[in-house]
UniProtKB/TrEMBL annotation:
PROSITE patterns: G_FEOB (PS51711). Residues 21-185 form the FeoB-type G domain. The chain crosses the membrane at residues 230-253, 265-288, 295-315, 342-362, 369-395, 407-427, 467-487, 559-583, 595-616. One of its GO terms (cellular component) is plasma membrane. GO terms for molecular function: ferrous iron transmembrane transporter activity; GTP binding. It comes from Terriglobus roseus (strain DSM 18391 / NRRL B-41598 / KBS 63). Keywords: Membrane, Transmembrane, Transmembrane helix. Signal peptide: none annotated. This is Fe2+ transport system protein B.
Amino acid sequence: MSTLIAPAPATVAPRPAGGAYRTVGLIGPPNVGKTTLFNRLTGMRQKVSNYSGVTVEHRSGKLKSGQTVVDLPGVWSLTPESEDQKIAVNVLMGKQHNVAKLDAVLLVVDGTQLHRYMTLIGQVLACGLPTLVLINMADELTARKGFIDPLAVARELGAPTALISASRGTGMDAITRFLSGEHAAAALLPVLQAGGNAAPGCATDCNNLTKTGAYRRPNHSRFTREFDRWALHPVIGPILCLLFIMAAFQIMFRAAYPAGTALSNWLSAIGATIGAHIPNAIVSAILVDGIWNGVASVLGFLPTILCMFVVITVLEDSGYMARAAVIADRTMGRVGLNGRSFLPLLSAYACAVPAIMATRAIPSKKDRLATILIAPFMTCSARLPVYALLIAAFIPARKLLGNALGLQAITMMLLYALGLLAALFTAKLLNFSMLKGQPSLFAIELPNYRLPRLRTILLAIYDRSKVFLKQVGTVILVLNLAVWFLSHMPFHNGQPSEVGASYLAHLGDLIEPLLRPLGLTRNVGISLLTAFVARESVVSTLATLYGSVNAGVALRAEIGLAGALALLVFFALAMQCTATLAVVRRETNSWKWPLVQMGYMTVLAYAASFVTYRIALAFHV
Ligand SMILES: Nc1nc2c(ncn2[C@@H]2O[C@H](COP(=O)(O)OP(=O)(O)OP(=O)(O)O)[C@@H](O)[C@H]2O)c(=O)[nH]1
Ligand SMILES: [Mg+2]
């Protein structure tokens, strides 16, 4: 067997002295492990998950050697169909501004489905950049009794090839040697002289690979086949999905919420002790009421939010989320929403910002815009603290099915359902009006089920906690301090005003007439204003205004159940998120859509909240 490296084609980018490539791109189909490999090579922590379209932008990272690796969205061919694919192809062609031209390519494919990628392999090799073909998922291939002889595949493709497992870290030395330059690669990787089975012929070569014994397709995953009978069943599938959701909310209220309450009570007790040791009353009030208690009140919701993130991560990384998108398409696709929209929409349960970015994977412009416009209706994790606070304060903890289901969990589910219904209603409306058009075809990759990786779950917990703590320690803390000062100013003879006579109260008086028809008060209005900066700050603002970490008790006396229901509905439907507005502006490249979205959502939220309040009053709630 020849171990000569193919002569470099004329188009190969110049390499620095020493032979190492400066900038290397990770190209390949979706969901084959490109980002897993990127994270392993660079030590970064980009999102990895078991469905197609997780990465939607380019991301660069450095190797220890100083070389740059660029992770890219997945592509099926070099003719892009969606915005994310355009980015990948542009980077490969050296046309993407702010990304350096690639010197070499790591072409990653999934070894358990090699037959599906031959066209892409051919197209990428034909680009002429030095390319190492990485056949990933070696572990799964072996487990399912498949086989690949990388040397024989390299001979057929006319390109260096290595069999790896990005998640287990096997085969990495081949990459290191390739990246260090052609001589090392030649020593390691057997490659045919150019002119063998050249790239454009690859589409027919998979048969060749099989015939020559270089590749044996693995058996189907039995678990995937068996479980999908239930998961995708027209009746049992949706029931199963509902059961998963119910279980998640029940865990949230039975375990995570009580843990959070205990945490904030404990923090509050510490705050009181510290406050008692500070001789100056005003300094003590600023530190304890203005800073500590506000922060403690929000921190108490960290376990609830993390519980939600663990559930979403497990559903995504197991491969179930793609099935949930199919179920959603079957049951809700009638509103004119393309099935491709459901994956971004489901990820909006974590946060609308990445979900709106994920719409880049939707090929149709109309479907993409519709998804962007309705994504903020999905219940993001920042709404959770407010829901949890109000539900715990107003809805009795009654058991409905023993320990399996409670009234509070059901109420939470209804709020999630309300957001979803508003999203579907809006999609239908758009389909009739601004975004008329033929429904586009829905095709989705159903990945094999995988055991969710503990590392992925722990990283999701770590990353989310970091984001949350940073938010609490910066934005919410500053906002809360501002609320405290404004609710105690002006000072008279060095003494703070009563809250009722403060600047903030005057501001609240201005908005109160708007809120009265919803059964809401000045304090609630002020907290809703702060929600524009960060939704969670409703909790800390109320805690500061009522002077207690648990604002629920004071709220109960102030707005009653009818007001609380109106507030929940308003909060479920209102836009109130500057970060989302900014990303909608960026992704639609216009101010028109974020403004239309904000106006529409505010009007809808107000009207629905008003109707809720009136109905609740009519029933003497
Ligand atoms: N068994 C196994 N699973 C792997 C391996 N590498 C990656 N995975 C899993 O494959 C799934 C997809 O991984 P990603 O790294 O997100 O794939 P990607 O190619 O970046 O996907 P997109 O960004 O959607 O294009 C995840 O569930 C990973 O845990 C591997 O070597 N073996
Ligand atoms: Mg990726």
